[in-house]
């Protein structure tokens, strides 16, 4: 699995949401959700919070021998037509002991841990996942339409009640707790600092110095960045007013 991440600003049409980078941005970790265990990562641990949503996408997925095959090129083919080309004798058995269509339409959400920059992938074909995805997509679309910049939602992985044919269940939910702009105010990624040139010195044999004891840690040593510090270094996004949403001003 590739770990390639296309940076923001790589192309005018690539904003991370449905753009080319959303199809190439993958990581070694993933998060999954079910209404019994809620959110867990691949190690069975609760995922960190908060997380940045950096890309979303839709795809067609087929499992064979426990390995996924993805179609992400847009427009996506018709999933029913694809399944019709595969004899049902070749379909695998689902959890309900019935033949399972090989191809399914899935939603994909790519998240980043602001503390470690670790990438998390969430993908699912379920109705509850589709509802969470559509709500997230609508909120991002609205905020970007109003702000005109490449804002990214800061989320906490949560849940919501979900009415099904079998009664009330729970579904995944991306609870937005804030909005940030990557890089600076202009939304451009911060370039890495160039290495300082070093002058070459003539090679002179010198006696090997005596080993020095390891210095004991002091309170002044730099500590790892926290999620709050990382998010604070990003630009805040002005909250949306009611007047902006309805494109009018309430006269009171």
Offer a few descriptive terms.
globular; nine-stranded mixed beta sheet; two-stranded antiparallel sheet; disordered N terminus; 11 strands; 5 helices; alpha+beta
Detailed description of the structure:
This protein has 252 residues and is α+β, with helices and mostly antiparallel strands. The chain has 5 helices and 11 strands. It is globular, with a radius of gyration of 24 Å. The protein has helices at residues 20-24, 79-84, 127-147, 227-232, 242-245, and strands at residues 29-34, 38-41, 51-64, 67-71, 92-93, 99-100, 103-112, 119-124, 152-164, 167-181, 235-236. The longest helix has 21 residues, at 127-147. The N and C termini lie far apart (56 Å). Strands 1, 2, 3, 4, 7, 8, 9, 10 and 11 form a 9-stranded mixed β-sheet that branches. The protein has one domain (20-190, 225-233).
In angstroms, what separates the terminal alpha carbons?
Answer: 56 Å
Order of helices and strands: HEEEEHEEEEHEEHEH
Envelope shape: globular
Beta-strand content: 25-35%
What does the average pLDDT come to? 76
Q: Structural class of the secondary elements?
A: alpha+beta
Please provide the count of β strands.
11
- Count of DSSP-assigned helices: 5
Largest beta-sheet characterization: 9 strands, mixed
Unreliable spans? 1-13, 185-204, 248-252
Please compute the radius of gyration using only Cα atoms.
24 Å
In the residues, how many domains can be counted? 1
Please give the share of residues in helix: 10-25%
């Amino acid at each position: 699995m590739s770990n390639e991440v296309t940076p923001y600003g790589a192309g005018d049409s690539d904003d991370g949401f449905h753009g080319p980078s959303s199809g190439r941005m993958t990581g070694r970790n993933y998060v999954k959700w079910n209404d019994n265990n809620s959110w867990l990562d691949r190690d069975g641990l609760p995922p960190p919070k908060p997380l940045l949503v950096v890309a979303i996408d839709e795809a067609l997925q087929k499992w064979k021998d426990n390995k996924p095959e993805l179609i992400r090129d847009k427009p996506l083919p018709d999933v029913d037509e694809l399944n019709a080309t595969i004899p049902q004798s070749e379909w695998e058995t689902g959890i309900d002991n019935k033949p399972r269509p090989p191809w399914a339409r899935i939603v994909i959400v790519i998240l980043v841990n602001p503390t470690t920059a670790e990438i998390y992938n969430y993908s699912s074909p379920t109705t509850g996942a589709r509802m969470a995805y559509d709500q997230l997509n609508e909120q991002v679309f609205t905020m970007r339409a109003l702000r005109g910049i490449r804002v990214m939602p800061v989320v906490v992985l949560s849940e919501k009640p979900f009415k099904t044919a079998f009664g009330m269940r729970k579904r995944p939910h991306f609870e937005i707790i804030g909005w940030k702009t990557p890089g600076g105010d202009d939304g451009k990624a911060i370039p890495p600092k160039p290495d300082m040139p070093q002058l070459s010195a003539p090679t002179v044999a010198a006696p090997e110095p005596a080993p020095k004891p390891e210095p004991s840690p002091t309170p002044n040593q730099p500590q790892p960045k926290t999620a709050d510090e990382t998010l604070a270094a990003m630009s805040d996004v002005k909250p949306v007013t009611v007047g902006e949403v309805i494109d009018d001003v309430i006269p009171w």
